[in-house]
Design a protein that fits this description.
The chain is mainly alpha-helical. The protein has 5 helices and 3 strands. The chain has a 3-stranded antiparallel beta sheet.
Length: 118
């Protein structure tokens, strides 16, 4: 439960749903309707408070801001959401590839990030 986590830790957590829809829209310079639309497009899925209100994390706001940049340049919202999803997947794949390259370049006998069976 969030009350069990110290406040300082929650404030530092990029995934902690700290922002209401109104505050998130204000921070992004957009409307709550935009946030609902990117939720319907499955770009982000806000958590819900006990009262059913949408709550957004800093990570989700960064994703939403990227989508907003694309929409502001004339990209349809559905396409903008798909682009952001693909960019995120590409970034993750590149991160994984870099880990594998580091492991492959680790000298024999030196444990890498994912040592295989002997």
């Amino acid at each position: 439960m969030a009350a069990d986590i110290p406040l300082g830790d929650r404030l530092d957590d990029d995934d902690y749903p700290a922002y209401t829809m109104g505050r998130a829209a204000e921070m992004l310079g957009t409307t709550p309707g935009f946030l609902r639309a990117i939720g319907e497009a499955r770009l982000i899925t806000p958590l819900r408070s006990e009262g059913g209100h949408r709550r957004y994390s800093r990570y989700q706001l960064r994703i939403a801001a990227r989508a907003r940049e694309l929409v502001d340049r004339g990209t349809p919202i559905e396409a903008a959401c798909r682009i952001v999803i693909l960019e995120d997947q590409l970034e993750e794949a590149q991160r994984i590839n870099a880990e594998y390259r580091r492991a492959a370049n680790t000298p024999a006998g030196t444990p890498g990030p994912h040592p295989g069976p002997n």
